[in-house]
Amino acid sequence: MEISRRNAISMTAAGLIHIAGRQQALADAPEPGVEWLLRRAQDRGHTDLGWLKSYHSFSFGKYFDQRHMGFRSLRVINDDKIAPGKGFPKHPHRDMEIISYVLDGSLQHQDSTGQGAIITPNDVQMMSAGRGITHSEYNPSASQANHFLQIWIQPAFRGVQPRYRDNKLNPEEKRNRWKTIAGPEGSSASVAIGQDAIIQVTQLDKRQQLHYSVERGRHVWLQVARGQVMVNGTWLGAGDAVAASFATDLHLSAVELADVLLFDLG
User: For a pLDDT cut of 70, what percent of the chain falls above it?
Assistant: First the structure.
């Protein structure tokens, strides 16, 4: 589908298109003719339960915004901080690929398949809920807070066998370069997911630069987890994101040490 140059777009998880006003969505567009969706950290939804402080890039729980229901198959990015010794008790999921990416502290996972692990920074964890699974997530530390990104990807097929996988990353593999942490079966990703979606991460040192080419027919959501970067001339801080649905090149330059995630979606 051709994108009008008069509008910015926000694609829902179902692939429907919602038109956003040009002035709001493109206020910081860096180049004439280049259009993208800009999602600022302060505009996200927020949940504060005391033990949990969470920011929602897309509608989640009691936060609802029909302009931000997801982007292509990307349904949830929750920026979660869990107090020491606290967490999510056992609860159910189905038909969702759920990825956890820890930034600080540790996160303990247990699910109804019998799988369990404690993941820390440089670990990536994937749970394919399939036809139904229950799990719990806790911060096992008595003193250190946990900070992680909870990511949901809608699967290509429903009702599949639930499965679990975690993998440890070598920090040097993501330092000043892209590292694929999740992708379709048969890819070189650290964990496999049941969708035409690729998640890449990088940790950019101050003043380091990195590029990414968005292929025709692909859609990209870029999320800054920590730090500050310039992307095609636009400043992005922690929690900020941009999305593009056209063939283009993204040029990143770190203002300070930064952790960035990039979602390349069909």
Answer: 87
